[in-house]
Design a protein that fits this description.
The chain is built from 9 helices and 10 strands. The radius of gyration is 18 Å and the shape is globular. It has helices at residues 2-9, 25-38, 110-113, 146-154, 156-163, 166-173, 188-192, 221-225, 247-253, and strands at residues 12-18, 43-49, 60-63, 94-98, 102-104, 120-123, 133-141, 178-179, 185-187, 212-214. Strand 9, helix 7 (188-192) and strand 10 form a beta-alpha-beta unit. It is of the alpha/beta class. The longest helix has 14 residues, at 25-38. Helix 4 (146-154) packs across helix 5 (156-163).
Length: 256
């Protein structure tokens, strides 16, 4: 139909957010190059950031939108809520958000074709059936859910105390959620990692229909690539927190 034909020629928008020092500009650049590698349609990457140093020139950079955050001792778990405000620069329509600690390994265009106009998200892998989306990879129509930002901004301490992390808050108040097909967006630790003790002998590998592998917590992609799984505090966890090196990460993620 005319809508699908028009979409082929429209520029799609992927957004990400980078603040602090945990993830450097190379994470943004690798995401940008992977999008170009796998997308057939015109697609732009917009990075909302507090530091543009080292980011490729063809990535559009914007200041992180203002948000009223409580005082955090560590990395702000509600920083991403800033992207639900409206207006959000010149953005309109469906926008795909990707965390920096993901590896793109397949088609990204299909994320824009699936259930257009709806809030689409990965079902959280550790809370299946609990109606919680994992916001490592989600798509939303800009402006429709501005109440998520407005309500948080009005009383952030209350919402932080109730929910702890932003994806629980968003899942509770967004209304209708549509989950991506389960094999499109997978978790490194909770989907493709062989169960203990097989993880000591078998390599975690994404399936042929996977487009995004999410690395929540540790290890990060660069660590899993070489078989490192940092464990802080309770070192007995090394008994089961182990990954064999994953050379496929180098193939998909590093610049070629």
């Amino acid at each position: 139909n005319h809508y699908n034909l028009l979409r082929v020629y429209m520029t799609q928008t992927v957004i990400c957010i980078k603040w602090g020092t945990r993830y450097g500009s190379e994470y943004v650049n690798r995401m940008n190059r992977a999008i170009k590698r796998y997308n057939k349609r015109p697609t732009r990457l917009i990075c909302f950031t507090d530091d543009v140093t080292g980011i490729d020139e063809d990535v559009i950079t914007r200041d992180i939108p203002p948000v009223n955050l409580p005082d955090y001792e560590y990395s702000p778990p509600f920083r991403k809520v800033s992207l639900w405000q409206y207006p959000l620069g010149d953005l309109e329509g469906d926008v795909l958000y990707l965390d920096l600690d993901i590896v793109i390994c397949g088609d990204v265009d299909r994320f824009f074709d699936y259930e257009p106009g709806e809030y689409c998200v990965a079902e959280n892998w550790t809370q299946i059936g609990k109606n919680i989306g994992n916001t490592s990879c989600y798509r939303f129509p800009v402006g429709r859910y501005k109440h998520i930002f407005d309500d948080f901004n009005a009383d952030p301490a209350k919402i932080e105390k109730k929910y702890g992390i932003s994806q629980k808050y968003i899942s509770d108040v967004v209304g209708k959620m549509v989950y991506w097909p389960a094999d499109w967006v997978v978790s490194f630790k909770h989907t493709i990692m062989p169960p203990w003790p097989l993880n000591f002998f078998k390599t975690a590998i994404p399936g042929p229909n996977t487009s995004v592998v999410a690395f929540t917590g540790k290890p990060d992609p660069d660590e899993a690539m070489i078989g490192e799984w940092p464990v802080e505090g309770e070192h007995w966890k090394k008994i089961y927190k182990f990954t064999k090196p994953c050379p496929w990460i180098e193939d998909y993620w590093l610049d070629k």
